[in-house]
Amino acid sequence: MSEYIYEWEFDDTKERWTLWYVIALSIVIWLSIWWFFTKQYWMSFIVLLIAWLVYFVDNNSEDNIEVKINDLWIKISETFYNYTNINSYAFIYRWQDAEFLRLFLNKKWIKNIDVKINNNNVDAIKNAIAGNIIEDAKIELTFIEKVIQMLKL
After folding, report:
1. CA dihedral 44, 47, 51, 54 (to 10 degrees)
2. What is the pLDDT of residue 1?
């Protein structure tokens, strides 16, 4: 194996306050009760299932993610993404600062992956993957992505 061209790590913990959990739990309970009394039992089940899945995924994901770029692949945590499986990449900007590196994949179910970056390592990342993947134009977060970030989902 060849050595890494570029690597960095980032903290992926979601810092939520107690009130966030109280509000989320209240909404889940209220929706479940509402759909139960309106005899939409499946909706109650689906809301509880989604809430459990979100909680399970949140508590079982890594807090510190390591990203390594090689001349053959990009490694995110313990998963390798060969350049042949990546269509293109783009930097996601919020205001003037790059916030994420978005990889657009060839996979059927997972279409893209967002990786947090520091604004100061944009050029280093571009140089590391230059010639392997094409870059899309500057992209900004969509309204829905901004809402998801604001709600810390």
Report:
1. 150
2. 46
Is pTM beyond 0.85? Reply is no
The per-residue pLDDT of the chain, averaged, comes to: 84
Predicted pLDDT of residue 2: 52
At residue 22, φ and ψ (nearest 5 deg) are: -65, -45
Confidence class for position 42, pLDDT limits 50, 70, 90: very high
Select from 2.30.29, 3.40.1350, 1.10.150, 2.40.128 the CATH code of 6-11+64-150. 2.30.29
- Angle at alpha carbon of residue 139, lines to 98 and 6, rounded to 5°: 45
Closest alpha carbon to 86 in 132, 130, 127, 126 = 132
User: Please, are residues 105 and 112 in contact by the beta-carbon 8 Å criterion?
Assistant: yes
Beta-bridge partners for 9? 66
Q: Whole-angstrom Cα distance, residue 116 to residue 69?
A: 14
